[in-house]
Amino acid sequence: MDDLKIFDKNFTRKMKNENTFVKSLDGPLLISWDVTNRCNLNCLHCLNQSGDQDIHSFNDEISEKEALDLVDQIIEIRPYSMCLCGGETLLRKDLTTIIKKISSSGIPVNMVSNGFLLNDKKAKELKESGITLVQISLDGAKAKTHDIFRQVSGSFEKALNALIVLEKAKVSTAASFVPNKLNIDEFEDYVDLVVETGCRSIRMMPLLPMGRGLKNFEELEPNEQEYLDFCMSTQKKQKQYINQKLDIMWGDPLEHIYTAFYFNRTTPLQIEIRANGNLGVSTYFPISVGNIRRHKLKEYWECGYNKIWELPEVMDLASSIKTIYDFKELLNKTWVDKHLELDIIDDHRDEKLEVNRNG
Ligand code: SF4
Which residue, judged by its Cα, is nearest atom 4 of ligand 1? Predict the structure, then answer.
C-alpha cells in the first residue's frame, strides 16, 4: 500500500459544513482502488506489505476483463473522485486504459506511484489518459536515505526523475513524505529538492505501526524532539515558499475514522476496492464486506455499504482506534488473526444494517 491515499482534505472539511451537498451525492465521495498488490520495491514501512508473496496471492487479482467491467460499475455509481493505489500502480499493463475510461466519463482520477517505471513516454501516456494528479513517494533529500527506506538502490533517482518527467508532460504532481529516523533531519533540503522539480505539493503522514511498518516501528519512529524540530522546519519552509504557492499538507490517518464513526455514520464517504475485488472499509481495518466478483458495486452500495460504519464489526474496530498506536492492538483482537471476510449481501447483513438504521 503506498503511503497516502489521495484525498482532498479541504473538500472533506467543506463537505462537513455543507451537509446538503453531501446528501445530494448519489454515490460516495471517493472510490479508492488498489489496482495491484505487486510491487517492485520493498519499503520498510509498507502498510499492506505489498510485493510479499507470503502475504498476498497475486493469482487472484482482478483480470483486465474484470477491470473493464469494474470501471463500468464505477462510472455507474459516480463517485466525486477516484484514486488508484497499490502496490505499484504502474505494474498494471491496463492502467492507462482504466484511467482513460474513468476520466472521460468526467470523474477525476488520481494515482499514487513509487515512480520507478516512469519515463517521458509513460508520463505522456498518463497525460493523454486524462489523469488529474500523480503522487510520487520520495522519502529523503539524499539517495542513500530514500534507497535504504525503499530497499532498492536507484529508487531515489527514479522517483526524482518521475516528478521531473511528469511536470514536463504537464501532469500535476505531489510528492509524499513519511518522516522517520532516517529522513526527518533532511526535510528542509527535501523541500528545496521537490520545488526544483516543479512540483508544488508535499503530502505527509506519520509512520504507522502496521504491516512492515510494525516490524520496523521502534527503529524508525522519530522521537518527540525530532517531531518538534520537524514542525519548525515545516513552518520555515512554508514561509520561504509562500509566493510560489507550495502546499505542504499533513494527513491524519485517523481523520476518516473519526469523521465516519464519531460524527456522521450515515454520510456516504468512501468505497475501498482491494486488488482481488474485496470491498474494504478503511485501509487500516483487516475486514472485507463483499467482493465485486459476487455482486455489482451498485448492489453493495444500495444494500448497506453506504451505511457500512453501522456494521457491528466495523463499529467494534472503529471504537478501538483512538491513536495510531492502537493499530498495533488490532492484531490482538480475537478474530483478527487474519482478515475477517464477510459479505453484507450473502450473509444478509444488509437486513441487519436496515434494522440498525430504522431502530
Ligand atoms: S512502493 Fe513501497 S510503500 Fe508503496 S506499495 Fe511498494 S512496497 Fe509498499
Answer: 2
